[in-house]
Amino acid sequence: MRHKNAGCIAVFIATTLAFGQPAKSPADLLVTGIVVTMDPDRHIYDDGAVAIGGDTILAAGPRAEIESRYATKQTLDARGKLILPGFINGHTHVPMTLFRGLHDDVTLNDWLYKYIFPAEAKNVTEEFVRWGTRLAAAEQIRSGVTTFADMYYFEDAVAEETKKAGMRGVLGETFIDFPAPDNKSEAAMLAYTEKFLQKWQGDPLIHAAPAPHSIYTCSQKTLQDAAALARKYHAPILIHLSEMKKENDDSYKNNGMSPTQYLDKIGVLGPDIVGAHCIFVDEADRKTLAQKGVGCVHNPSSNMMIASGVSPVPEMRAAGIAVGLGTDGPAGSNNDLDLMEEIDLAAKLAKIAKMSPLALNAKAVVEMATIDGARALHMEKEVGSLEKGKKADLIVISLDAPNAVPMFDIYAQIAYSLKASDVENVIIGGHAVMRDRKLLTVDEAAAIARAREYKKSIAASLGME
User: Fold this and answer.
1) Cβ(209)–Cβ(237) under 8 Å?
2) Cα–Cα distance measured from residue 442 to residue 406, given in angstroms and rounded to the nearest whole number
3) Which residues pair with 51 in a beta bridge?
4) Selection from 63, 61, 52 nearest residue 26 by Cα
């Protein structure tokens, strides 16, 4: 029986014989392996490939198809390994790596006002911030994080070190209603932040942002001024939102409404807001957050460690809110920057809180670490999935360790079995920042050595030695 397309095939064969193979498009890098795209249809290609040109993904799909379409200068053979979009750490304070373990096992309010704020006042300088960021970059890259959202002081220094490490960052300069290590007044904060926003506009890796700390550390004027500045430069706004019961109770007492409704009333809420924690958000709050397009970031380790409460993640997702994952700061409220641990804990915390193993499944929490994390940061057009036109941010996870085999379900393996130590290669914007577990953009040994030196000076400043 003659194939119905036989005529077309004959013409194609004749043309190929006459003129040679169809020309392939050029690519800078081809990565082959088990491709977990996190695209809208959640395609997984067991024998797949990702073609990269410059800092952008050209295509992702079956390996045979991609290899037939692209001529590449370089190939990363990761067959038998997982290729995923880089993980997104939606909320942290990276220079606080240098305060890791300073004081734990206290309430958030006591931790902030009795320990961390005094320690920061005595120790945080631009140099401190640089070394803390370098240490954090090494730790995050090793755990597969390619994009992170940060809130701290001297954020321009954080941005410079983040760019040197080749990482992608949404980096927020803190607004707070008391003298901070970098700026001693709101006027100084506004001036510093405006210069910061101007400097990094259009940068391929750095998204500069104002970061009003919270409604309990910022006046209405400070919150509105920070939001106005962000909107002048079309920048995101990072803020702690409904992260502890005292904040919620005080808001009802002082404002007659929840933190979410208060921020909406004063004109701060909008599709540029990234709210960290979002624990005390009732049904009315969730409706408002969804309508306003606010992104929320769940921080399970932090919420458990400080006993702040359990964020209603399943309900927020059901309401249409983009919910990502974050580690929070690496001191007092978590003590590490391992986002793979947050993937695991997010699912298990929801299950025990709801007393249902169905509350939040493996696929959902992997989404929160990738495409939904990108949505929470309002960056889903840029990162979060392996799709044509998006930035070439991807990681390779080995499946050779004892904890990695056997594998029946890929999402379950990522959520519950694989560890940060299984991350083998990290590529950000088409550039390798870790190859075969060797960091390429951060002097890890120097950062570790300097952290040990800072431990001594911090302890001395607080009378701990």
Assistant:
1) yes
2) 34
3) 30, 59
4) 52
